[in-house]
C-alpha cells in the first residue's frame, strides 16, 4: 500500500491547521459511540476540506462514515479481480491525475470515455472509480490547494444520460458535496455536446448552489488553458503529459496495488445499534424525494 502521509507534513504545509482544533475533533469522534476509529490524518483532511470550521467538520465526518456505510454499492467490493463491473468500467472510463498544478495551485483530474458504447457505460461505477482515485491521492500524496476536475464529453451521446440511475447517483452527489474530504474547486466540461443543458437539468435538483457555481462549460477547449497549462494535458491533447493509455494503465495498477488501503476504508463503518438518538437508514438519510436530510451532530 502507498504510505499515508505523515500528519506532520500537513501541519508544516498549512499553518491554518491548529493542533488544538484537531485534538478537539478527535475527542469528539471518540465520544460518538457509533463511529469507527478515526485517525488524526482523517480529521486533518476533513478540517482542511471544511476550511477549518469545526462544526462543518463534525457534519462532514458524520456524513462521510454514515453515507459510506449505507451505500455499499459505491464504497465496497474494491477488488478488481472479484468485481467484473469495476474491471469493465476501468476499460470504459479513463480517469487520472495529471502532472503539475492548475494556475491556482490545484491538483488536476481528467476523465473521459475511452469506450463510447453506451451499452457498457455505468455512471454509478464510474463515480465509484472517482472516489477511489480521490481517496488514495488525498491520503497518500502531499497536500495541495484543492482539486479541479476536467470532464471531456467527446464521444458522449444522449443514450449515456439514460444510463444514470438517479435514485442511486444522487447519493453519490450528496456524498461529494457533504462528505468527501476534498476541496473541489472547479468542474470543467470540454468538447461539450448539444444535450449538455439536458444533462445539467437532470442533475441540478441534486446539486447545491455552491457546487453548481463551480461548473465551467467551455465552448472552445482553448479556454480551458486559462485555468491550467496545456503542458499538463496528455499527449492526445497536445500536452506534454504521457498518453492516455499509459496514464490509464498506471491508475489501474495503483488501484490493484493498494487493495489493503481500500479494504481499510471499507471496514470503517458506523454501528447504528450504538448511535445515540434515531438510527439512520437510506430512507431517512436521503429522503424519499431525493432531498438530503441533514444529519444530526451531538
TrEMBL record:
SMART domains: SEC14. Gene3D superfamilies: CRAL-TRIO lipid binding domain. InterPro entries: CRAL-TRIO_dom, CRAL-TRIO_dom_sf, CRAL/TRIO_N_dom_sf. Transmembrane segments: none annotated. Residues 82-245 form the CRAL-TRIO domain. Pfam families: CRAL_TRIO. CDD domains: SEC14. GO terms for molecular function: phosphatidylinositol bisphosphate binding. One of its GO terms (cellular component) is membrane. This is CRAL-TRIO domain-containing protein. It comes from Rhynchophorus ferrugineus.
